[in-house]
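Appendix B. Extra example for self-study. Work through it before the problem class; the solution is given directly after the inputs so you can check yourself.
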Amino acid sequence: MKKLTIVTSGLLLIVIILAVAQVMMTNILSTDGAQLSKLQAEIEKYKRENALLNEKILQASSLTTISEKATEQGFALTAQTYLSTPLPLALKQ
Amino acid sequence: MSWRLRVALFFFVFLFLAVIGRLFYWQVIRADELARLGEMQYGRRVLQSAQRGEIKTSDDFSIAANKVSYLVYANPKEIKNREAVISVLSSLLEEDTASISSLLSMDRYWVPLKRTVDYEIKEKIEALTLSGIGFEEHYMRYYPEASTAANLLGFVGKSDYGEDSGYFGLEGYYDRQLRGRGGGVIQLFDALGKPILAKMNNSGGKTDGRSLILHVDRTVQFIVERELKKSIEKYAAQGGMAAVMDPKTGAILAMSSFPAFDPRSYQEYTTDLYKNPFITDTYEPGSTFKPLIMAAAVDAGLVKPDTECSICNGPLEIGGYQIRTWNNEYKAGETMTEVIIHSDNIGMVFVAQKLGLKGMVSYMEKYGIGEMTGIDLQGEVAPGIRDPDSWYPIDLATAGFGQGISVTPIELLTAFSAIANEGKRMEPHIVSMIETPEGEVIHIAPKVQSIPISAKSAKIVTEMMVQAVDKGEAKFAKPKGYRIAGKTGTAQIPIAGHYDPHQTIASFIGFAPADDPKFLMMVIINRPTTSIYGSETAAPTFFTIAKQLLAYYDISPTGQ
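Solution. Structure tokens for the complete assembly:
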């Protein structure tokens, strides 16, 4: 009889512990879900910002843009100069 | 066992089998249908479109990228102060007030106002906190270099199902690689019907597209386009095209044609501008074909550089047709090198006759004439070679100097890679690598398509072409100090059974430095009007580009 009481009490204790654990886990998970949602939104935000920055970088570094800006600032193509014979290091007086 | 026990046993066994049968029906036969029904009760399937892969030049610059874009929509039933909203939206979205007004007057809960709206505009509208106005984010194709390499890239349009789809050029050829695979996610709802964001099932099978890394060099492409545009204006031509190839690998370093279109607003252009004429248009190559025939005859051991032409003392009659030189000047006993230098048609008839029909057709096949080159672009055509039985003596004679035969520019460029690359003809290729979203890189190895001539024959013909540049009609334009192998071409255009004497396709093909080529280039000026000759239009364009490429590749003059 005593043994049965101990087993019953033990089982009851386990049930109570598991019930409390479940409540605690549910509680934790519910806030984790909100946190996860926030993180997902943040990832999306950074992805968007990254894409926008990438677009600006591509636009600014495109040869079409650089060429236009160079022309605006007065840069021009120069004739290429070739040295067909090597220049002397020093000329005799 | 008594009969009552047996009845009870059979009864329970029957019940057990019935339950198993019913479970099999629900869980196996109607499983998919019921799963869908279940999903519909607690969630909704949201489609996720895959992000299209980028196209990058060899310096890792995205020449075709994706940008954030918005669809602006409205719920007309929630709009307050309608007149003010119409006024502000028409101004910010650059739409006329009548169309915005009609959209906002519709008896609907969701009306799309404008697609492809930029982030800045979306921010401005959002700052106004207008009720009933919303935004849907998506990615759209973006070309930072505007119309640069438009015919090479193609464009992204919509398929019959309203999905992004690549057309023409690389966007068309590699569409399946670039587009990726869209997926679906299940958006769950709580008992009140509110979405549970944190419970969204993200394993929707979405796979972003793969990116392409090209052989195309952005600087080379820019130089080619700039100089080609200038030449078309300078020579008052209808158009032009050019391509630069690494003859040792078949890598296409640049390819351009004009008139072109802007892939960002392709709808505003006529459809004939979408195709890439370098791979889709056929023409008679004229004198640029001569080095190929000469190389074939040299390779077959039929002629040598100092072999004298025995029929070059005047015009030639074949099958009732008279063949003349381009300037009506004749030099008896010309050597084969001089035939190439002076671009002598009679001399090339001599070579073609030595080669014979069988030899001519055989070498053309080895050069890949009449076949697809296998370039990785959508829309390539191959005009084919006529059946040898249908050739007349005049056809053999004119084929020797590139008339009466049709090729695409890419065919000719690829055939010339054999002369520039010790006899090996390479497969032309635009893409060098494919990059998966996971970062895995798939390399595309260079491929030898055929070996039409020996390395020795290639060297002999290269020397002839160097002489043609140094002593030929276009010598005035050649950059000093470099050994460049090349050949001019002035092909008449066949119209209604005869050649138009005033309209030509002027071209120049060559490679530099001749002894260890860094690039093989072809320039075509379509119907120039200031001069009809390749030596006065295409050749100067070629040399202007070549000068800049030699400087770009840090190749010093050799002083010869």
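Self-check: Chain B touches chain A through 29 residues (CB under 8 Å). If your reasoning did not lead you there, revisit section 3.
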